[in-house]
Automatic annotation (TrEMBL):
One of its GO terms (biological process) is cellular response to oxidative stress. InterPro entries: AhpC/TSA, Peroxiredoxin_AhpC-typ, Peroxiredoxin_BCP/PrxQ, Thioredoxin-like_sf, Thioredoxin_domain. This is thioredoxin-dependent peroxiredoxin. It comes from Candidatus Lambdaproteobacteria bacterium RIFOXYD2_FULL_56_26. Keywords: Antioxidant, Disulfide bond, Oxidoreductase, Peroxidase, Redox-active center. The keyword Cell wall biogenesis/degradation does not apply. Residues 2-158 form the Thioredoxin domain. It comes from the Bacteria. It catalyses: a hydroperoxide + [thioredoxin]-dithiol = an alcohol + [thioredoxin]-disulfide + H2O.
Length: 158
């Protein structure tokens, strides 16, 4: 269980970089030289809520600053991420977690209810991590509207 003030779990995942090329990523590499890492977990590429959230992060990259790395994580494949990035003009990495190991470690995989039906899936959430790997803020159940503004406020106040 991740807690504010503690180190977050390490990971190594495949994904795509901001230019759409496949690449392997680790927590250590993403934190290198950064003040903060924003890890946001989302259910699926090219769905309405996930597209809105990704585009909000895309549009706020300049406001986040050059010492903040934003990374999206979902169970989708590299090829799906590439299509999503290209279609939406995303300017940050997207990581693939098809086995849900990272999602589980970061409390972003769990029981969800939709129209009375229960199933396991990605719980839309975000972690703000300091450059030393310490969790600064955790949003466990994100509502897309206004979420990026919350992240910006947290960074400004940290």
């Amino acid at each position: 269980m991740i807690k504010v003030g503690e180190k977050v779990p390490d990971f190594v995942l495949n994904g795509i970089n901001a230019q759409g090329q496949a690449q392997e990523y680790s927590l250590k590499d993403l934190l290198k030289g950064q003040r903060y890492l924003v890890l946001y977990f989302y259910p699926r590429d090219n769905t309405p809520g996930c597209t809105t959230e990704a585009c909000d992060f895309r549009d706020q990259q300049e406001s986040l600053g050059e010492k903040v790395t934003t990374v999206g994580v979902s169970p989708d494949s590299v090829s799906t991420h590439q299509k999503f990035r290209e279609k939406q003009g995303l300017n940050f990495p997207l990581l693939c977690d098809p086995d849900h190991r990272m999602l589980e470690a970061y409390q972003a995989w769990g029981l969800k209810k939709l129209y009375g039906k229960e199933s396991m899936g990605v719980v839309r959430s975000t972690c703000l991590i300091k450059g030393d790997g310490t969790l600064v803020k955790h949003w466990p159940k994100v509502k897309v509207a206004g979420h990026v503004a919350q992240v910006l406020e947290a960074i400004a106040g940290a």
